[in-house]
Amino acid sequence: MAICGEAELVVDGEHFERIVLEGICAARVSVDIATADFKAMLVPRGGRSRAESIVAILRKLANKGVEIRLMHAGVPSSAALLELKEGLPEKLRIRRCPRLHAKSVIIDARSMYLGSANLTGAGLGAKADGRRNFEWGVWTRAAGMIEAVLDQFNALWEGQQCESCKRRDVCPVPLEEPGF
Description:
This protein has 180 residues and is an alpha+beta fold. 24% of the residues lie in helices and 25% in strands.
């Protein structure tokens, strides 16, 4: 990982350690995720034989009081949908915006990933070498940058762009929340 001022370059398999294990799994207050693609990525916990899905991890965090907002663009993978149909804790909220293509993970409003990786095993590096995507991103604790991205996330989460959106044909229900 290359360090450049207030930011660190995260490359390929480094995504898993930094964003998933040190980031999402260690959250204490909040997790705000923007991703185009959302799948039930398996997260090894104490060896590959013991893995749990990212949905289960988000559910556990929410049950501990961590506020989680997940915004994605498409339909989650079938495995993720099956898990989501089991019900969502009050503190785990999911919304869908078909125009979303940004990828960010903001942990406790204090650290942030901003880059190319979706919330998938291939994107965040949970897959083995030779099977995961080539991804680049930035991990930062720069308060000004985090605040700027959170402002954009909040505007989208609150639907500020919905009224003027020209893609209503693919989004008949603005910021639909899953009915599962």
